Amino acid sequence: MRILVIEDEPKAADYLQKGLSENGYIVDKSLNGIDGLHLVSQHNYDLVILDVNLPGLDGWDVLKLIRDRSNTRVIMLTARGRLSDKVKGLDLGADDFLVKPFEFPELLARIRTLLRRRENIAIASILKVADLEIDSVGHRAFRGSKRIDLTSKEFSLLHLLMQHTKEVLSRTQIISLVWDMNFDCNTNVVEVSIRRLRAKVDEPFERKLIHTIRGVGYVLEDRE
User: Fold this and answer.
1) CATH among 1.10.10.10, 3.30.365.10, 1.20.950.20, 3.30.565.10 for 126-220
2) Which residues have a Cβ under 8 Å from the Cβ of 73 and sit 6 or more positions away?
3) Which end of the chain has the least Cβ crowding within 10 Å, N or C?
4) How far apart are alpha carbons 76 and 97 in whole angstroms?
5) How far apart are CA 12 and CA 130, in angstroms?
6) Same-fold call for 2-121 versus 126-220
7) Could you tell me the sign of the dihedral formed by the alpha carbons of 140, 143, 149, 152, in that order?
8) Short-list 70, 44, 59, CA closest to 97
9) How many angstroms separate the Cα of 130 from the Cα of each of 161, 202, 208?
């Protein structure tokens, strides 16, 4: 799950990014609304955590512009708990409100609730290519009747490739979507992870599904 935090207070933004990352989310952050909107236009976020009191372009304006281009879930953070603010935010398309200061476990609970709600209306949780099948909710993978044991990152990588079947994904795209937008692009983590994934998903089987497009990237497809 990928989350964007738009919060102008650096310490608060760092705190949220660190805490959410430690709970298994991929987290990007922005210290202002303009940069935050740019990130929304570049990436598919499962959730945006948006502070109301931003300099320049405030949270209300950012929310309006997010809703013009995306249906991603939005939790608004505000120092005021007035009913009028909540009504305004909900009318503009916010999914939830959290009043500062708040306890971090409450934020995690709100996030889980919103993401579960999204999963209920999302595309089917079962993805299948040839005899390869994954259950994105149960985090299970199979080739035919054989269960494949994957680490969390291996599963995320396979899920990404299967979501984009027949699309060639570059190293940069994979790093951005599976790891973090600020991850060191000079690392060989993608090559290593693809090699490990192939060892589990392809090598024990006759039909190979993960292919390298030299100089471009990787693609998962059934080439009969």
Assistant:
1) 1.10.10.10
2) 46, 47, 48, 95, 96, 114, 115, 117, 118
3) C
4) 5
5) 46
6) no
7) negative
8) 59
9) 14, 12, 10
Contact 192, 199 (CB under 8 A): no
Helix, strand, or coil (residue 164)? coil
Rg (alpha carbons) of the chain, rounded to whole number: 19
The tens-digit pLDDT sequence of the chain (224 residues) is 899 999 999 999 999 999 999 888 999 999 999 999 999 988 889 899 999 989 888 999 999 998 887 778 899 998 876 777 777 777 788 888 888 888 899 899 888 888 776 655 445 578 999 999 998 777 789 999 899 998 878 888 999 999 889 999 988 888 877 765 455 556 688 899 999 999 999 999 999 999 999 988 999 999 87
Q: Which fold has domain 2-121?
A: Rossmann fold (3.40.50)
